[in-house]
Amino acid sequence: MFAVTLAVSTWLASSWLVAQGPMPQYGRKPASAKGPRALGLVQLSPKGKARLTPIAIMIDGKFYDAGSYKAAPVPMALDFGIVYEGFRAGLSQGVFTITQPGQLNHLWIAEGTWLPAGAIDPNQHKKYSTPVIADDDKDGPPVLHRRSDHDSDSSSDSKDKNSKDKNKDKDTDKDKNKGQPKPATPPASPTAPPPANSSTPPETAEVPAAPEPLKPPATDETIEDPNRPRLRRGKPDSNARLEPFTTFDPLPSTAQTDAKTAKDSAVALPQITFIPAISDAGGPDPRPYTYDVKPAEEAGYRSKMLDLATAQLRAQANAATKEAAPTGKRASASKSAGKSASKLPKPAFDDVSLRIFDLSSSNQPVLVLSARTHPTAADASGKFEEPKEITLIARTNLEGELHKLFFSQTDSRHLDVAPRMELIDAVDADGDGRGELLFRRTSDGGSAYAIYRVTADQLWPLFEGTP
User: Which residues contact 39 (CB under 8 A, 6 or more apart)?
Assistant: First the structure.
């Protein structure tokens, strides 16, 4: 009986699995978009001026520097009319529309208009909503994220409807006045309404119904190239006077504010706001990358991250002491360094910042700690140790313990060896629905941006810009 029952159960289970289809592979990476997908950083000044710095652009699954990709004469990611959507931890903050590309200190940037989420667009008199990708031109060139033309179509349809309603009202009034005497002065004849099967306004009714091929305006001939991908669709305004590119001045910062005004003001002056932005035509729907924790849980994570950072600092100090020792005495130096490192007091940290993300929607937190070691007093020899700037990235395992993924420490004298890592935010750079970490890396040669994917045991670089 047991054998028969087991055989029947096995047959039923196999039949159910066949009917359900293949089981999902949770360890398999979801298919990512091939692009084009551009990533930039929007800068909002206190006075409302908005600029965008290009970071990276993905074409056919590969990342390139957006400031130099197809920059003849304007980079592909900074063309006129491209719309970027700003995100913070995966939540939409608004849209940025490029109005003028140019250069600042020989680096490409673009100026544009910023419309915050929930604000009313003065051109359309409606609240901002997430851009909808809708375009019937399937054979057109590549396109980045932009707003739909549905609003313009609906506005033209409403015009036709209003004109039809007016004509209907006039016909009704005419029927009512049929039996009354005719006035001495006949009323002026109304303007002929547009045809019922056309949504074209009266002033453009002579345009043929068949769509014409897209042609750039005369001012856009300098960047017209048959082999150059176009990151916008729709016919640009032929009456707009567009400069190919211009030269910008730096945005006014709080450091340039009058000293007397800053001294008399008791309120903190507004700073320049940085918001990562993405322009894409076919990427997935954005999702939040925040990991909600209670204050007690966040305090526990902070304490564990600081303990892990202390252990990493002591381990690197031990390795530096061992490497600096002579060749013949490295064994004894290693033992003495290990004892001395264990006796060192726990370092104090300043400017501690902890951010917790859920990058893959798996409820497994990824923790990013940025801090600065407290400066110590000079020792008996008069040597002063410069404070270290540290960046620690870790994730939790199934037991809730922290596993180190990345650690770096640097100071102003060692930027050539270890760059300073400044976390910008978590973004979906490759369009697969999962978040990546965006950093600004500052070395002795300058600063650049880098995108890293968080794996099970390390950070995997997707893009590292040139300083």
Answer: 54, 55, 56, 57, 58, 66, 276, 277, 278, 427, 429, 438, 451
